[in-house]
Design brief:
The protein is α/β, with parallel strands linked by helices. It has helices at residues 6-18, 34-42, 57-70, 85-96, 108-114, 118-128, 144-151, 185-195, 199-205, 211-218, 229-237, 241-252, 258-265, 269-281, 306-314, 319-324, 327-334, 339-357, 411-424, 442-451, 458-461; strands at residues 22-27, 47-51, 102-106, 136-141, 164-167, 285-288, 300-303, 366-376, 381-391, 396-403, 429-436, 454-457.
Length: 463
């Protein structure tokens, strides 16, 4: 089944129907659904779909020759191999003379790695031949840094040739409900917290009866697809997966500053910076600064991919139990017991998404939503505000709190975020939002009515 990319699909089809030359660049992290989108777009259309190989140019030329032959023939084993890349592109040109043809180069970075001049060759044929044709070229890649710098970047030979670009991101907490619509809001939020909204992981988690059974079968199981996924992804993307694994483990273990991470891993800070940059480019790690402040000493690192965060939180410490098949016996106490704690950061992410994407009932026009932390000079302690919504203009801010707990939240939480707003100190007017999985006490509900404080439950943000 194809879910949730209707906007991108509609835009691609609109461009296709216009009949002009197109060069659409589609990129995003692995498993996010780029190829599924392209396959859906190509249905019923004349298409040459070439998936580049992490191999030599000769092997890629053979694969491209087969892809061209497969368009009109069932048996690709008889495909002739073109003498060179230019000859293969000339055949694409000939085919596009008689029909509207989609030519897809999937995993384009592999092809560019195999042939350093391929981007220049494409640039030449786009400028001198394809620009006046009705060819629909699609360049797709999973290496986001490569696609942004070597395809879309101004130093690339292909700069200015693209007619559209689509950065495919993970699905939001609401979008993933299409995969398992029968699940409750709490179950949906947990699926989001485990998979991070990556369609491939949602499919591989394969929730049939309940999430616990799905986890035990497909993640906490040495034969399950998701069990080795982080390791396999690191091996596929990186030359030194062991060091990258150590860096991620350090961050997962609580190290958030460069020096802390470097010390835990046992490498120099300058060297560590290079590894961190690669993981940031892959979207596995994230770098955060308190909203409204510039990057600096307060900048911290965290795991930005929910699936990696879930895996590193629960798999390494239970590896022996998983390997011996005992995990089912201790699952409740060793894993499930800690889900509410794990889901805290996930819930904060969901609530920020709710404010940015899913409600128009806001007192201000938001410029951005993030978190803020700093020092309370009176208490002489660090404080953190889960949600700060900054205004497009003016000095009215949204200040919010997110609690993924079963118990009801009371008036003390409102008093606390009011105190935190004073420490934040950048606004003239504050609008308070409290999000709670377990609901609210009668006292807070009455107080909220009187003071126009917005109270929202987990169920509310799914409506």
């Amino acid at each position: 089944m194809f879910y949730c990319r209707e906007k991108e699909l509609g835009d691609l089809n609109k461009r296709y129907n216009a009949g002009k030359f197109e060069c659409a660049v589609i990129y995003g992290r692995r498993r996010v659904g780029k190829t599924a989108l392209i396959n859906e777009f190509c249905k019923g259309k004349p298409c040459v779909f070439f998936s580049a190989l992490n191999a030599t140019m000769g092997e890629n030329l053979e694969a491209l020759s087969r892809a061209i032959y497969e368009k009109d023939h069932k048996d690709a084993s008889a495909a002739p191999v073109y003498p060179d890349f230019d000859a293969a592109l000339a055949e694409i040109t000939r085919m596009a003379e008689t029909e509207r043809l989609v030519f897809v180069i999937d995993e384009y970075p592999y092809l560019a790695k195999a042939n350093k001049v391929v981007s220049s060759r494409l640039q030449h044929i786009i400028d001198h031949v394809w620009q006046e044709s009705n060819l629909f070229l699609v360049l797709c890649g999973s290496s986001m840094s490569f696609m942004e710098n070597q395809v879309l970047g101004y130093e690339s030979p292909l700069f200015g040739r693209r007619t559209a670009q689509y950065k495919i991101k993970a699905l939001t907490y609401k979008e993933i409900t299409a995969f398992n619509p029968r699940l409750s809001a709490e179950e949906q939020s947990l699926v989001y917290g485990i998979t991070g909204g990556i369609p491939h992981y949602i499919n591989k988690l394969d929730v049939k009866d309940d999430i616990d059974s799905a986890l035990l079968e497909n993640l906490f199981n040495t034969s399950g697809y998701l069990f080795e996924e982080p390791e396999n992804l690191l091996k596929q993307e990186l030359r030194e997966p062991a060091i990258y694994n150590s860096v991620i483990s350090a961050v997962a273990g609580g190290a958030s500053h460069l020096n802390e991470i470097a010390t835990k891993v046992g490498i120099e800070s300058g060297v560590c910076t290079k590894y961190l940059k690669v993981l940031l480019d892959l979207g596995i790690l994230k770098k955060e600064t308190p909203i409204t402040e510039k990057a600096g000493k307060k900048t911290i690192y965290g795991i930005g991919d929910h699936f990696f965060r879930f895996w590193y939180r629960f798999v390494p410490k239970n590896m022996s139990s998983i390997g011996s098949g005992r995990i089912e016996r201790i699952y409740e106490q060793a894993i499930k017991k800690y889900f509410p704690d794990y889901m805290g950061l996930v819930f904060e992410n969901m609530c920020r998404d709710y404010l940015l994407r899913y409600t128009e009932d806001l007192p201000i026009i938001l410029a951005d939503v993030g978190q803020w932390w700093g020092t309370d000079p009176k208490q002489k302690k660090e404080i953190q505000i889960d949600i700060v919504g900054t205004p497009l203009e003016g000095k009215e801010y949204i200040i919010g709190s997110c609690k993924y707990r079963n118990e009801k939240i009371g008036v003390d939480e409102l008093e606390l975020i009011k105190d935190y707003a004073k420490v934040f100190g950048k606004g003239e007017v504050y609008h308070y939002y409290i999000f709670s999985k377990g609901g609210f006490t009668d006292g807070l509900i009455e107080r909220a009515k009187a003071e126009n404080v917005k109270l929202l439950t987990l169920d509310d943000i799914y409506k």
